Amino acid sequence: MSQNFETKAIRTQTERSQFFEHSTPMYVTSSFVFEDAEDMRASFAEEKERNLYSRFSNPNTSEFVDKMVALEGAESGYAFATGMAAIYSTFAALLRSGDHIVSCRSVFGSTHSLFTKYFPKWNIETSYFKANETDTIESLIQENTKILYVETPTNPGVDILDLEYLGQLAKKHGLIFIVDNCFATPYLQTPIQYGADVVVHSATKLIDGQGRVLGGVAVGKEELIREIYLFSRNTGPALSPFNAWVLSKSLETLPVRVERHCENALKVAEFLEAHPQVNLVRYPFLASHPQHEIAKQQMRLGGNIVTFEVKGGIAAGRQFLNNIQMCSLSANLGDTRTIVTHPASTTHSKLSEEDRLEVGITDGLVRCSVGLENVNDIINDINQALQI
Ligand SMILES: *Cc1c(COP(=O)(O)O)cnc(C)c1O
């Protein structure tokens, strides 16, 4: 019987043990035992699908992966200790020395560091396109280009990239199309439907959703995930069973949480758009968003990130943060607690002003990860902080 999203998020479950538990228990064990020599031989030869060692698989990590596979519409997956472990391992497993990546310039900071600081050590180069200039992608593709990589919505500019267009482009040029779906979650958007070959996530964000554990996952085509799995079972970035247990429980409430996150975020965005101290608001489900039509086509709702520009540049951005009373000043996002950050003076302060503007970070830009507090309390806090 086919199941809907919410049902899969709850009813995809590890087989019940002899104790008939209702909710999956924690399998905090590093290894598993064998019946006899033949069982052990067949297990190591992968003639049997079973748990051997928790670096390879564990009932809790498998439950989390099975859910993510079901929710993203993928064939297979593997879970990682962090989002960065998922992203690094995916590239490291699929690339060889001499390969080339084409990536959107607006990607998560550590992903950008992989491209600029580490992959060149192995003779892997990356070419970038701007989020709003996807028509330049074809001119960047070379003979040795292997991967097309994007995030959408982007961070912190909240640009939307057209997944259908990118999927077709990747197919036309025989590229592996990889999407970091962290900001949308599979509840809002399923890139595989548009031709993504692998979808990666930082589960630390909306998937946990409560600011507790780190985690990551890669799901996608069977043969690609097999490569990622083999690389990972040897190199050891596995997710811990405890964190997998937490994340699998979190997925049970993903649809209701994300629904409310988006409802609150839209109200915050509408409030900001009408505020005289604010220059510009970026939220995919505001009609003023430059890629609003694409957002509506590929996303169920607009997500929980709202960015806006406070009038008065860097000083005003810093003052806004200092005025905030309830919302948190934190580097995380996708938490129950609303979080505000000022990229120009923090996460992106090492970039030149030109490089910052390239990824849409103006001096007064504030990123708000809208949480699940009562939306009136969130708006009241932002409103009083805007009295600059
Ligand atoms: C946070 C984040 C990551 C990295 O995830 P970690 O779990 O912190 O390693 C990757 N991509 C995006 C879009 C993120 O927001």
Describe what this molecule looks like in 3D.
- The protein has 388 residues and is of the alpha/beta class.
- The chain has two domains: 5-251, Type I PLP-dependent aspartate aminotransferase-like (Major domain) (Aspartate Aminotransferase, domain 2), CATH 3.40.640.10; 254-385, Alpha-Beta Complex (Aspartate Aminotransferase, domain 1).
- It contains 15 helices and twelve strands.
- It is globular, with a radius of gyration of 21 Å.
- The site of pyridoxal-5'-phosphate has 14 residues, from helix 4.
What key phrases describe this protein's structure?
single chain; 388 residues; alpha/beta; Aspartate Aminotransferase, domain 2; Aspartate Aminotransferase, domain 1; 7-stranded mixed beta sheet; 5-stranded mixed beta sheet; 12 strands; binds pyridoxal-5'-phosphate; EC 2.5.1.-
List the helices and strands and how they pair.
Blueprint (H helix, E strand, L loop, with lengths): L4 H7 L25 H8 L14 H14 L3 E5 L2 H12 L5 E5 L4 H10 L6 E5 L7 H4 L4 E7 L11 H10 L3 E5 L4 H4 L9 E5 L13 E5 L1 H14 L5 H12 L1 H20 L4 E5 L9 H7 L6 E6 L2 H11 L4 E2 L9 E3 L11 H6 L6 E5 L5 H11 L3
Parallel strand pairs: 2-3, 2-4, 4-5, 5-6, 10-11
Antiparallel strand pairs: 1-7, 6-7, 8-9, 9-12, 11-12
Helix pairs in contact: 1-3, 1-10, 3-10, 4-9
Bound molecules: pyridoxal-5'-phosphate.
The site of pyridoxal-5'-phosphate has 14 residues, from helix 4.
